[in-house]
Fold:
Amino acid sequence: MKKQILVIGSGVAGLTSALRLQHDGYTVTLYEQRDHVGGKMGQIKGNGYTFDLGPTIVMMPHIYKEVLAYTGVNPDDYIQFTPLDPMYRITFQDGETIDATTDLEKMTYDFEQRTPGTAQGFLSYLNDTYTKYQVAKDHFIEKSFRKRTDFYNPKTLWNALKLKTFDSAHHTLSKYIKDEKIQKMLSFQTLYIGISPKKGPSIYTIIPMIETLYGVHYAKGGMYAYAQALERRFKELGGKIVLNTRVDEVLFDNQVAKGIRIKDQIIEADAVVVNADFPHAMNNLIKDPKVKGKYTEEKINNMAYSCSVFLMYIGLKKKVPSLKVHNLYFGGDFDQNLDEIFSGTLPHDPAYYIYSPSQIDETVAPLGHEAIYVLVPVPELKTATFTWTDEIKENYKQKIFAKMKQLEGLEDMEEHIDFYTTMTPPDFEADLSAQFGATFGLAPTLGQSNYFRPKNVHPYAKKLYFAGSSVHPGAGVPIAITSGKLVHSEVKKDV
Structure:
């Protein structure tokens, strides 16, 4: 008889682990509390517009494709990726713009023209960071840490020293590049995983390196098309998805996972994979203190969390050709902006990001219209010194609108709004079970990374596994996909 695996949550890590396990002969049932799969890789639709709920930037598409290829199909039959060049446009407070390009020759030339000596520093940064990335990938990112000796051994510790993680991402970049604008251009990406470049370990300088060498791509139909591709293939293989169903508890017998409880219904299984946010799962789904282990409610609530985001989804009855697909706008004082986000203050002059997939994808907005997604990093709820009232949401919307109306083509944007909705930290907490509304899960601090991050194989119970942004190896879609891959490998060892 086939082994029964239950997966709680259909974020990208849950979907990828479920798909791999179903392909390998397990009978997998996936439970999702919302009415569609994807988790934060969700979708918002209205009035003819289609918006990605959360992630928008595709890096390293080969990682996305490998999951589908593993199951014996051509990924191109399920998802189409288009490379973007420029990858994104950055606009500084003084109005200067820099286009981040995949043309390394052009990027190097442009940097050198701005500040002599920058080209040498940039190429040295790429070389050194690529070397660190290979070490990180082989010895940390694609490796599960089941026991102490998986980390505390001479080989792993030696490779950890090679990464030189005790410095911050921003300070490490400043050793290579002196131009402050280029420093910002190459350090803001730590916000992709919810941590300040001033605080994030230096290993996260790999993100702009990966963008430069591997490019940024667009998934036709938006990021949600990838969740749909995984869902389609999972069902083709016989996998079962149960939507609109909230799991109430993971059940154990002598610290061995035996199934789940949904209201009064008990569903037995040979193993349980939890893709719900780890902090939420430990506080709400794991009732047995022995299984919680060190992750008591007090411990969970005192851990460090990523920032959150204020999101606006705007449909415009006009085109704005001045926009690229990805656009980043820096506020006045970037350091102050970061300090405010991570000290709990709503930024008064924030940096913000505009994603406009309708620039190249006619399927996401009515003809002649524009779909615009606006993201502003803000504090998570534990740190926040304010409450998200309707008044604060409206005032902050108007603050961002005032900045947007200074952009070419958006001067009269309010007259053309055809659709509007928003997501705030309380929404992430209520709708997606993100602890404290922290969009990217637990912060990837040095003390919450690699061996020190919650593990894929739970150390306090057998047959219980965790996948997602708050567990190893961390946040970001390619990393979450890797998390699902690690869980798949670990389940196969045990079940």
User: Anything to note?
Assistant: The chain has a mean pLDDT of 94.
